């Protein structure tokens, strides 16, 4: 398949009259030509990535009582996999593909301190069999939401100080359990080495000691240790400045890897700079939603001006269903209004999202070797009525309206 890009937004720059060659599921060449034949022609962009949403969990045309965005069993649900609560026949998936939003990082809601895993998925999968691209990390929540669920089961503090104390207690218990188990393991090995037995017998006993150490930890414990050892990232729901400061301190205390999800109540360049200084990326949004709670009382679409002027590294979310996923591109207008360049704005839903989600080796830009997931538009995507007439996901034509 060959596509002629009359204008190419490749995720980094804007160019004219280039050809993109696709074989199987990858881009194999990008070239200039005056005579090359082609299958499709138009303005071309990478497929869009929604870096935080709840698609397929809160579903079109279903009552809220049937939604599956939050498990109410306890505050700590680190084993929960959001894919197991997705229905792929949700109309939102079709709409997402129509508007070129081919990938999502789907997470449980924010009613629990830890709501479950964060999974990067294909929005065009027919079912959940092939939907997962990456097990990215976990969903955590600070601020109002986890203290607003006092009617749910488990320990449910009604203050932030109570919720944060409970979170730290959980972390400390896991770390103590690991420390105690490690001391016991090392002591057992020391005692074994003093024994006057054969190497074969030592190996059998050593394997037993190692197995005993591993059985100390439950499946839940092991997931917590992945978080506490920085093997996996936590996407942390946080809006207000004081909760952001707490997140920074929490990251330092436990040496966590985290991203700050939302932050739309913030209108302070220094706070955004502080997040960057502490190596915390931002998944920003949902812009254009109703500020329906106290922790959004300072929210304004104009807050993006401070974000742009800061040193922060950020991408965008819809938080679907808060903002419908197919409106992801429309959110770029708030950044254009505040003076952001068109090429830079498009990065917020392409390469920036891919980099923060650690999938930039396969997605986020149009480059040789990457997955062939791209959009062919009838007009420049910044035109209000622009629409992708051809949608290609990993080399497969998902939509063709030519």
Write the layout of secondary structure elements.
Layout: E1 2-9, E2 14-23, E3 26-31, E4 40-46, E5 48-53, H1 91-98, E6 101-106, E7 114-122, E8 132-141, H2 160-194, H3 199-215, H4 219-228, E9 233-238, H5 241-254, E10 258-262, H6 269-277, E11 281-284, H7 304-309, E12 314-316, H8 333-337, H9 342-347, H10 351-356, E13 374-377, E14 388-393, E15 396-400
Parallel strand pairs: 1-4, 5-6, 8-9, 9-10, 10-11, 11-12
Antiparallel strand pairs: 1-2, 2-3, 4-13, 6-7, 7-8, 13-14, 14-15
Brief digest:
By secondary structure, this protein is an alpha/beta fold. It has helices at about 90-100, 160-195, 200-215, 220-230, 240-255, 270-275, 305-310, 335, 340-345, 350-355, and strands at about 1-10, 15-25, 25-30, 40-45, 50-55, 100-105, 115-120, 130-140, 235-240, 260, 280-285, 315, 375, 390-395, 395-400. It has 10 helices and 15 strands.
Order of helices and strands: EEEEEHEEEHHHEHEHEHEHHHEEE
Number of helices: 10
The rough form would be described as: globular
> How many strands appear in the DSSP assignment?
15
> What is the topology, as strand order, of the major beta sheet?
5-6-7-8-9-10-11-12
In terms of structural class, how would the helical and strand content be classed?
Answer: alpha/beta
Helix content: 25-40%
Q: What about the largest sheet?
A: 8 strands, mixed
Mean of pLDDT: 97
What percent strand? 15-25%
Please mark out the parts with pLDDT under 50 across 5 or more consecutive residues, or reply none. none
Radius of gyration from the alpha-carbon trace, in angstroms: 24 Å
Q: What separation lies between the terminal Cα atoms?
A: 15 Å
């Amino acid at each position: 398949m060959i596509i002629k890009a009359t204008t190419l937004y490749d995720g980094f720059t804007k160019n004219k009259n280039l050809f993109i060659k696709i074989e199987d599921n990858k881009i194999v060449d990008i070239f200039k030509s005056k005579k090359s034949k082609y299958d499709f022609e138009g303005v071309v962009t990478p497929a869009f990535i929604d870096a935080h949403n709840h698609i397929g969990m809160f579903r079109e045309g279903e009552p809220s009582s049937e939604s599956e965005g939050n498990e109410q069993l306890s505050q700590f649900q680190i084993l929960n996999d959001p894919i197991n609560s997705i229905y792929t026949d949700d109309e939102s998936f079709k709409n997402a593909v129509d508007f070129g939003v081919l990938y999502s990082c789907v997470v449980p809601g924010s009613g629990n301190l830890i709501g479950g895993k964060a999974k990067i998925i294909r929005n065009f999968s027919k079912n959940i069999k092939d939907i997962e691209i990456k097990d990215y990390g976990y969903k955590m929540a600070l601020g109002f939401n986890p203290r607003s669920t006092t009617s749910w089961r488990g320990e449910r503090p009604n203050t932030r100080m109570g919720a944060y104390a409970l979170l730290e207690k959980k972390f400390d218990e896991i770390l103590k359990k690991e420390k105690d188990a490690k001391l016991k393991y090392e002591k057992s090995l020391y005692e074994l080495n003093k024994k006057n037995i054969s190497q074969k017998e030592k190996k059998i006993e050593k394997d037993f000691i190692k197995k005993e150490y591993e059985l100390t930890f439950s499946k839940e414990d092991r997931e917590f240790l992945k978080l506490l050892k920085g093997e996996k990232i936590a996407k942390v729901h946080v809006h207000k400045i004081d909760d952001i400061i707490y997140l920074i301190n929490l990251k330092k205390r436990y040496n966590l890897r985290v991203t700050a999800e939302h932050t739309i109540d913030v209108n302070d360049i220094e706070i955004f700079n502080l997040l960057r200084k502490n190596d915390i990326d931002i998944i920003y949004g949902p812009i254009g939603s109703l500020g329906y709670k106290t922790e959004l009382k300072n929210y304004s679409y104009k807050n993006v001006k401070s974000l742009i002027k800061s040193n922060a590294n950020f991408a965008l979310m819809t938080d679907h269903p808060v903002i419908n996923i197919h409106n992801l591109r429309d959110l770029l207008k708030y950044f254009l209004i505040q003076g952001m360049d068109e090429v830079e704005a498009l990065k917020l839903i392409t390469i920036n999202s891919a980099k923060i989600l650690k999938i930039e080796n396969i997605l986020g830009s149009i480059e040789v070797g990457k997955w062939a997931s791209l959009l062919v538009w009838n007009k420049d995507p910044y035109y209000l009525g622009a629409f992708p007439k051809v949608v290609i996901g990993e080399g497969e034509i998902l939509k063709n309206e030519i």
